[in-house]
């Protein structure tokens, strides 16, 4: 059984952390306890248990470390430009080397785009794991409507969760930045979001219970 912690924050949210199911923790806010009934709370806890069950806590920690390493290497490479590491010139002549210029352009694009691409991949993985955790929670509780109702209440909570940092947003049941982030839809909104649009999550849960979304 994971250790459970209560966060003194009035905004409803929850997240799981730890390296494996034997060393896992679930944190829920005071606000979550105050607005959810028993069945809805079970749905949210089952969602976080699913993150633990499928080792999402380890996966997303690994992904975050990988993204951080890419960003750090990119920053080091960009700083190296100031020292003229890649001047596009031969060592014996001041004439420009065409091959060197091409290599420099490719290297520069890689340095700039690599952090962006890895960050987008991390967000894509996070969104897919949220869908999986929702489905698994419905399987564990055999009550998909309870989690759907809980997510609806969480969507209506407009205040950001100040006690939860952005670095663990991908493990929260909803994005801690608040309703404006959770309700965004469209290609670009979903591309840069850590969570799927709330309306889609609720729609899929209702579909599991053979209920049409309102």
Structural class call reads: mainly alpha
Instruction: Assign a percent range to the helix content.
Output: 55-70%
Q: State the helix count.
A: 8
Q: What profile does the largest beta sheet have?
A: 3 strands, mixed
Describe the strand arrangement of the main beta sheet, using strand numbers. Answer: 1-3-2
Shape verdict? elongated
What fraction strand? 5-15%
How many distinct domains? 1
Q: Pick out the low-confidence regions.
A: 85-93
First-to-last CA distance: 36 Å
Count the beta strands: 3
Topology pattern, helix = H, strand = E: EEEHHHHHHHH
Mean pLDDT value: 77
Report the radius of gyration as a whole number of Å.
22 Å
Q: How does this model look, in words?
A:
The chain has 214 residues and is mainly alpha-helical. It has one domain (3-65, 116-208). It has eight helices and three strands, in the order βββαααααααα. It has helices at residues 30-35, 38-53, 56-80, 98-141, 144-156, 179-182, 187-191, 198-208, and strands at 3-7, 14-20, 23-29. A three-stranded mixed sheet has the order 1-3-2. Residues 85-93 have low confidence and may be disordered.
């Amino acid at each position: 059984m994971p250790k459970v912690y209560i966060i003194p924050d009035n905004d409803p949210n929850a997240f799981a952390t730890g390296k494996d199911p034997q060393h896992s923790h679930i944190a829920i806010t005071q606000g979550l306890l105050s607005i959810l009934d028993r069945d809805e709370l079970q749905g949210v806890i089952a969602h976080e248990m699913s993150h633990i069950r499928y080792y999402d806590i380890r996966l997303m920690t690994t992904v975050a470390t990988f993204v951080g390493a890419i960003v750090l290497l990119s920053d080091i490479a960009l700083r190296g430009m100031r020292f003229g590491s890649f001047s596009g010139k031969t060592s014996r002549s001041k004439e420009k080397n065409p091959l060197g210029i091409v290599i420099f352009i490719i290297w520069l694009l890689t340095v700039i785009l690599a952090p962006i691409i890895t960050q987008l991949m991390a967000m894509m993985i996070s969104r897919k794991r949220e869908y999986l955790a929702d489905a698994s929670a419905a399987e564990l509780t055999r009550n998909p409507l309870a989690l759907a109702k809980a997510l609806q209440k969480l969507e209506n909570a407009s205040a950001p969760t100040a006690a939860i940092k952005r670095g663990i947003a991908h493990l929260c049941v909803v994005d801690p930045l608040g309703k404006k982030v959770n309700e965004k839809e469209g290609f670009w909104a979903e591309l840069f979001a850590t969570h799927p649009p709330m309306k889609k999550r609720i729609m899929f849960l209702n579909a599991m219970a053979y209920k049409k979304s309102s």
